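Why should sequence recovery work at all? Because a backbone constrains its sequence more than one might expect. Tight turns favour small or flexible residues, buried strands favour hydrophobic ones, and helices have their own preferences. The token representation captures these environments compactly. In the example below, the structure is given first.
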């Protein structure tokens, strides 16, 4: 019975989260009421679930299934297609940007030495001017 409560909580949360875009920043009444009722229902049934099921297990199921179901709802309802390779490229570029920005203070190094050190430490970002990158130096 408690897993049924957890299932209802997960579905309520997915319906509420999927309806957030339709509220248009809570300017439309009907979707806003769906969101409020969905979250209220989700938390009510989650509290019933936590009487028996440990919070770690309940939260793992809640979050894991919620992520998958909300992504599916976004795909089927709103036509949002996740582009995993693009997202990973963006994260890698952020890491490269940080790796290139680690340099010593400019007062201790000449401009040429700083540029040479940055080129040597660069791992191929496209955000640093003059560094090596798969597409050549950034302009």
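From this structural description, the recovered sequence reads:
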């Amino acid at each position: 019975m408690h897993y049924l409560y957890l299932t209802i909580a997960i579905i309520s949360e997915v319906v509420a989260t999927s309806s957030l875009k339709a509220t248009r920043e809570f300017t439309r009444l009907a979707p806003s009421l769906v969101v409020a009722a969905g979250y209220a229902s989700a938390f009510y049934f989650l509290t019933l679930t936590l009487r028996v099921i440990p919070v770690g297990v309940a939260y793992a199921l809640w979050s894991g299934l919620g992520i998958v179901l909300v992504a599916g709802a976004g795909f089927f309802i709103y036509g949002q297609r996740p582009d995993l390779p693009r997202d990973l490229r963006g994260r890698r570029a952020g890491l490269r940007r940080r790796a290139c920005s680690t340099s010593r203070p400019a007062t201790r190094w000449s401009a040429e030495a700083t540029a040479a050190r940055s080129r040597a430490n660069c791992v191929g970002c496209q955000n640093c001017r003059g560094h090596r990158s798969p597409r050549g130096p950034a302009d």
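A few observations help interpret the result. The helical segments are 2-19, 29-49, 55-78, 84-100, 111-121.
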